[in-house]
Amino acid sequence: MIHKSNITGIILAGGKSSRMGTDKGLLIFKQKPFIQHIIDAMQPLVNNIVIVSDYTEHDTFGMTRIEDTIKNAGPLAGLYSGLKYSKTDYNLIVSCDVPLITSTVLNKLIKNYEEDYDVIQLKSQQKTMPLTALYNKTCQQTIKHLLDKGERRMRFAVSQLKTKTIMLDDNLSSTLININTKEEFDAITN
């Protein structure tokens, strides 16, 4: 298993949140912002945590915040920025819109690491989760090449890398729910 000293936690929080109408990372769920839930889930597993975001409001979490190297290019550019900044071989990536994520689920990625793979991602409810995954730092070259060619799709990028997909038990699937709309937010708060 990879030691936590060689893992950086990278939270992707630079999105426009257009469907939600407000910054998803700052939405309050159970008295804490979404980003704080993700920090809490990551902290036991990683050496340090970085937030990829152009929003200075995210400085309130007390973590290093870095801005996107390539502007307005979606989560793939955020992933690239995080990997470029990272000082570790392994990087636990989580988007800011999964506030139900747990250390137990994230640890499954680390426990299932195999040297032959660039990416270890989760799959739940028939959907792969490239934004809840463990990435090797070496992925940054391929991702930069794709971005330079105008590619923005995460799933396409992951298909260009050696990827291992871990099936998540159905009883844990709720931990990966993406909250993108007011309706989805209401569903977890009521």
Order of helices and strands: EEEHEEHEHEEHHEH
Any idea what the CATH architecture is?
Answer: Alpha-Beta Complex
Q: Give the overall form.
A: globular
What number of domains? Answer: 1
Arrangement of strands in the largest sheet: 5-4-1-6-8-7-9
Main sheet, how many strands, which sense, barrel?
7 strands, mixed
Briefly say what this structure is.
By secondary structure, the protein is of the alpha/beta class.
Structure write-up:
This protein is an alpha/beta fold. The protein has a single domain (4-189), classed as Spore Coat Polysaccharide Biosynthesis Protein SpsA, Chain A (Alpha-Beta Complex). The chain is 28% helix and 24% strand. The strands form two sheets. The chain has a seven-stranded mixed beta sheet, with helices on both faces. The protein has a two-stranded antiparallel sheet with strand order 2-3. Helix 2 packs antiparallel against helix 4. The longest helix has 12 residues, at 74-85.
Q: Which key features would you list for this structure?
A:
190 residues, alpha/beta, Spore Coat Polysaccharide Biosynthesis Protein SpsA, Chain A, two-stranded antiparallel ribbon, 6 helices, 28% helix, 24% strand, globular
Q: How do the helices and strands line up, and which of them pair or pack?
A:
Layout: E1 7-12, E2 28-29, E3 32-33, H1 34-42, E4 48-52, E5 64-66, H2 74-85, E6 90-95, H3 103-111, E7 119-124, E8 127-136, H4 139-148, H5 154-159, E9 163-167, H6 182-189
Helix pairs in contact: 2-4
